[in-house]
What we know:
Blueprint: H1 2-23, E1 30-38, H2 40-51, E2 54-56, E3 68-76, H3 77-86, E4 90-95, E5 98-103, E6 106-117, E7 128-131, E8 137-139, E9 145-152, E10 156-161, E11 168-172, E12 183-187, H4 191-197, H5 209-223, E13 232-234, E14 240-244, E15 251-255, E16 259-263, E17 268-280, E18 283-294, H6 300-314, H7 318-326, H8 330-333, E19 335-343, E20 348-350, H9 358-361, E21 362-366, E22 372-377, E23 380-389, H10 392-398, E24 399-400, E25 413-421, E26 424-431, E27 442-449, E28 453-457, E29 461-462, E30 468-472, H11 473-477
Parallel strand pairs: 2-5, 6-12, 20-26
Antiparallel strand pairs: 1-3, 4-5, 6-9, 7-8, 7-10, 10-11, 13-16, 14-15, 15-17, 16-17, 17-18, 19-20, 19-23, 21-22, 22-28, 23-27, 24-25, 25-26, 27-30, 28-29
Amino acid sequence: MLRKFLISIYCFNCLVTLAQQRQTSILDEQVSIEFTNVSLPSALRHLNRQTNIGFSYNSSIIPKAEKISSTYQNVPLRDILDDLLKSAGLHYREFKGTIIILRNEFSSTTISGRVVDTETGEALSFANVFIDNSTIGSATDVNGYFEIENVPAISFNLVSSYVGYKTKTTIINYNELDTAKNLEIAMDLDAVALESIQVIGKSEERKTRNERRLYRRFEDAFLGRSDNAKDCEIVNPEILNFERLDSLDNYSVTADDILYVENYALGYRIGYLLEEFRFVNGQKMNIGKAQFKELEPRSRRQNRQWEEARARAYRGSIQHFLNALILDSLEQEGFKVNVVQYDSVTSEYTTPLNPPKVKEIITLKQHADEFFYTLTTTSDIEVTYVNEYEDDGYKKQFRSNSKSGNYKYTDKKSRSSIDLGDNQSITSYQVMGYDLSDVELFQKSIIFFNSKTTVISYPGQFENSRDVRFAGWWNWGSFSDMVPLTYKPPN
């Protein structure tokens, strides 16, 4: 009896100890270590050998010249990292037992300049100047001058827009930030835009039946069909012009002015400079520049809901994928990559059951500017995000049956097919052993590369939107799931 009691006490203590260990972060581990005139990369290697904790980072962001001489006795790992990384302008976060080191995305840098007419040199008052896909921007004053504070420590596109003028994009490289003062941005008149200003937009009642139908299709394609899209509203649809391209109901859309979208799901008002929107054979091209402004929350509860919704929108997004690719943390962040091949016999895109390694599919070469990379791929790719599943609405619309109508394969391979339009689909395989209709499938997206070599930048975006097209899950949420490039997800 006593023996059973002692054993039960021992088991209880083991469970308590295990629970305490699980609640303790690896950052709380006490470390004793001495650094003598070593570089930061060398210090991180010493920490790795002594603690057996993995560090993940892009070597290009780690300064190598400065030498470190410090001694730590029984100090929490987080305090050592705070000390080592602070002066280097770096921060870190823990993810599944690995410490990921990142560059601080914001600085105290201020850029300034003046916006003028190209021909006359006259100031353009109240022009809009902003960093593309961000919440950061400013308007020019009556003399055409602007000043933008708290500029992120990255390379970015500075967008200038003014009614009746062609939108101007100025590339600002990270190593030019300190000299980006007194910029002069010259803008050209846009004759087409000036003509369109004279035309009063049609009211909803005066629109033809065909225009109303195309607008509803555009809403679905542009905003997306996710839960977030239900809480998005196009504020000024009257500025949109629709053109039917052929008898197959393909169409294009242009805008006479900035298109405004209020996203009540994420808490943003977005001004969008729509450059080109085309929907052809089930696939869309959407090219433009966005300026985000945060809506004012009505309560703390709503602010918390927006923060949670933004984090959900970021996770598994294109931006998240490209950031993980640049930081070489795809697996840690929950992404898997497969090649996509077109079968002309079945008119289907297929993915192999055993994909090649990511480095055999995609290679990155860093530019002289540390935030730009040349991406080269051997084929179109399928991206699977294993931390989230498809939602019911997506499954209902896009998960189709195999030609036999039977998913119970004897070799335990089940097939998921995503409709791409124009009688084409992509077929993905997973080892399941279940009827597919009873199985939750991870979010799958496809990147079709119009150019097998393209440029991406950090934070994650494709520099030339025309180089790629998306299908699958990333088309489902679309515009309604966008967060600014400067969005920083919680640890």
